[in-house]
Design a protein that fits this description.
With 170 residues, the protein is mainly β. The protein contains 2 helices and 12 strands; from the N terminus they run E-E-E-E-H-E-E-E-E-E-H-E-E-E.
Length: 170
């Protein structure tokens, strides 16, 4: 009579090989094959599917970044800006700061959005009846760049931000 095939686990115990285990190649430092029960493998596969389904695809996200002319009453230094498109929406961060202008992108690539804030304190002075401070951005997106206009109550600048493709290298 032939005995059923046996295998040795990491602790050195000999066990019969069963249909409910899958052998996985040993990792660095391991002394024998690893065993993973099929229910554990199924749970791992289900977890991977859930994570993949719930994570936004990087290919559906377009990022444009670069410098825009400074926006101040006197000539100002250029500042960094970022525009990110996801689907039919976008977010624009002038000066890569905490203010983010959101809006919509039309099928032809046109975009527009605005952010209404309280006026800066230096503009209020003695009066509390100053109008709201509205930041606006509009323009057009394509495969290579975002071109547009960024406007505040103080000034208006035109910009061109090149598309930043994701890098697979760190």
């Amino acid at each position: 009579m032939t005995d059923a095939p046996r295998e040795t686990d990491l602790s050195g115990r000999s066990r019969p090989r069963t249909a409910t285990t899958i052998r996985i190649a040993a990792t660095a430092g391991a002394t024998g094959p690893l065993r993973l029960p099929l229910p554990g493998l199924a749970a791992l596969a289900l977890g991977a599917v859930i994570v993949a389904a719930c994570t936004p695809r990087l290919t559906a996200q377009f990022r444009y970044a670069g410098t825009i002319p400074g926006c101040a009453p006197a000539p100002a230094a250029p500042t960094q800006a970022t525009l990110v498109r996801v689907g039919d929406g976008f977010s624009f961060a002038p000066d890569d700061g905490s203010l983010v202008i959101s809006g919509t992108v039309s099928p032809d690539g046109g975009f527009s959005g605005q952010l209404t804030t309280a006026p800066p304190r230096r503009d209020i002075g003695q009066s509390t009846t100053k109008p709201a401070f509205v930041l606006k951005v509009s323009g057009h997106l394509d495969e290579e760049a975002a071109q547009g206009t960024f406007a505040t109550p103080r000034c208006q600048v035109s910009f061109r931000l090149p598309r930043q493709r994701p890098s697979l290298l760190p």
